[in-house]
Amino acid sequence: MAAHNATHAPDHAPDSVRDREIEAEQTHLDRVYRRLEEKIHEAEFLMDDAAKRGQVGTPGALAERDAQVFQAGVHLHRLNSEYEDFLFGRIDLLLGKDGKKGPDGAYTSVEPADGAVENNRATIAETLHIGRLGVLDADYSPLVIDWRAPAAAPFYRATPVAPGRVVRRRVIRSKGRRVLGVEDDLMRPEVTATLDGRELPAIGDGALMAALGRARSHTMRDIVASIQAEQDMVIRAPAASVTEVEGGPGTGKTAVALHRAAYLLYQDRRRYAGGILIVSPTPLLVAYTEGVLPSLGEEGQVAIRALGSLVDGAEATAYDPPAVARIKGSSRMQKLLRKAARGALELAAPPAGGVAEDAGPDTQLSLEDLVRGPDGPAPRGGARRRTRGGSARPASTAPARLRVVAFGTRLELDADELHAIRQSALGGTAPVNLLRPRARRLILDALWAKSGAGRRYTDPELAAEAREGFDEDLTTEPVLQEFLDAWWPELTPRGVLAAMADERLLSRWARRVLNPREVRQLARSLGRLDAAGQGPLSVHDIALLDELQQIVGAPMRPARPREADPLDHLTGLEELTTWADRNGGGRGRRERLEEERTDYAHVIVDEAQDLTPMQWRMVGRRGRQATWTVVGDPAQSSWSDPDEAALARDEALGTRPRRRFTLTVNYRNPAEIAELAGKVLALAMPGMQSPKAVRSTGLRPRFALAGDGAGPTGDKELERATVAAAGRLLDEVDGTVGVVVAMNRREQARRWLAPLGDRVVALGSLEAKGLEYDATLVVSPAEIADESPAGLRVLYVALTRATQQLTVLSTARDEPDAAAVPDLLRD
Ligand SMILES: Nc1ncnc2c1ncn2[C@@H]1O[C@H](COP(=O)(O)OP(=O)(O)OP(=O)(O)O)[C@@H](O)[C@H]1O
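Structure for Helicase, as requested:
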């Protein structure tokens, strides 16, 4: 580890020294901004010049103009971005071992030259400033090094145990163009180093502690100024194959995943033009984290999507209780969905009495009474039947018949024959919608065979010709098309899902897959959908829709080609914007990216422990050719069958080699909160190690009781106690307060807490994943733990959300002791 192991200078540097150091950084920052302004002018001039060249109109001049516009656009985009702390770091270094410098003007050697330190005295040979983007001075000396450049790595990696060339690491805090403060960590505290003849001072209590102590808002901040060594190893790990990261709550997994996306883009922008997908468990976590990448100068190439919004045109808004989630997430659903899609075809009946008379009687091959509808009246009152796309139609109990007249002969395929044809066509492996041409061919074969026309020709060539004519006449008849549309309709994922709401049908399709109770639960849950499959979907339904999309196949529409960038061949690896950005703005591009892509160059899965097998299949399909970064914590898993999920994960990641990293330090929770949460961890996953908390606040978690503890706690009592405890926390912290309740109390808690304003957020236990608050109120641990088979792990998540203060509110159900400590949290 770096900073928390580093030696922090006790903050007793005289104010004059502090002021002098701030002044020195201010001078450097002013120089950086002067240089940036020069660059902006250059870029504007280039744009202007390029526009003039465009009027020349020769192809060469146009290409040159485009290249210039591109470069200038890149500069403007970079330089006009206003960041709070464009420049945030500095390292003071000893002379490098070999004295060689890299392209950015910095020494390349990680190790100091022999004799750089003598008798614990040294001279600083090089000072590097680190920022969000690299800036070179007019003479190509580095004014700012990009945080992702190799020369910046010692800023993150140096520790007192392995300091390399770093003597002092400084974090600079600035706002706009003003330097506000500096925080130093000494990597070689025993060494007295001088810079320009003056002893190197150390200011502040260390950057990490300063960063961790700040109040939290509703959005995550980047950690670029204080990335720790073990985190940096992950961020800069080579992108080949699969990078797996495990770590307990608050170890920075999400932060690391986001910084890794920015790093990968910096390293190989061309490769990742294929897009980076970050999959998050909830929309709340997406909203919380999505500002981080723009703050790191990256946006366009990265799509952050919640599991419930991965499928275009569908958005999860409903919640499935654990028992239903368990069914829908299980890999058993694969088989069931395949059966359901095939079964849904059989529901399809041609329109009642659909008779086509328009194929004139004197045509050689006339079709008549092409389609016969259901025999007898449609059933009443029984279960709803749905057909293609869920469009409600009278259900057919008897399958259709197909009648045609060919060569004056009446030809008929009865229900059994049609059924046999359907079964034979379904024997193909292609998606159901794509098997329709095969079914049509089989129908024509059967009609041809019935006509006996083939036997009339001894000459095979004549027979083939006649057959061709027969097929052509039949297939150009709109009525045959109508029959096919009704008998083999184009299935939609939503339509199939809606069909599964019929318990009778579902139990047929789910034979030997689900038990009757599961069938009932699943059918009831899908009953939320209307006949067309519209209605509230849960996050688990989204994975089912995606699976069904594979099973039924895309409707046959021409694929939209990806937008090509006409400048691709002209530009180097350094572009920050693309053609689409320049023509539609970064946001527009991002939206397009999200709409169009189903296959990415790199996939990052956050909170990977929570993906169900069906969700792994859905995510896996989006990264078949990708490299992967997978971050998670098994101790926080809310999925009930981790072994099944692990199998699905292995399937999604395939045989690609994996590199594993473990993060060990908890940067979120003070030791007092981490210790309490550790009690639940010991119950949930005996033997599992908690991460080590990096700081302590001296504030122990508080325990409160709703009601008087005698008899069951009523809602009114719970409301009163929740509002009181949340209000107290609000008074005690500057930032946010998260109130975590069992999922079925979400709405209730939102109503209770609304009057307290927007610093307070009410969350269902499953929504708390990945989020953090200055203070957290956990309401009835027992209620949360009893919610699902993974309830204890969900409670562990809830207890590890606070950065400063935690209150646990018990009801009678928690069996609190005299100090209001619930049974689950007692020693
Ligand atoms: N190096 C760091 N410097 C400053 N803050 C950090 C650092 N690493 C992590 N943090 C902060 O610690 C908190 C926890 O980080 P993050 O949410 O990424 O952890 P996590 O491992 O994903 O947690 P969980 O598993 O609970 O979701 C965040 O506020 C993050 O900004």
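The chain has five domains: 17-215, 233-312+595-663, 322-348+491-552, 402-487, 671-825.
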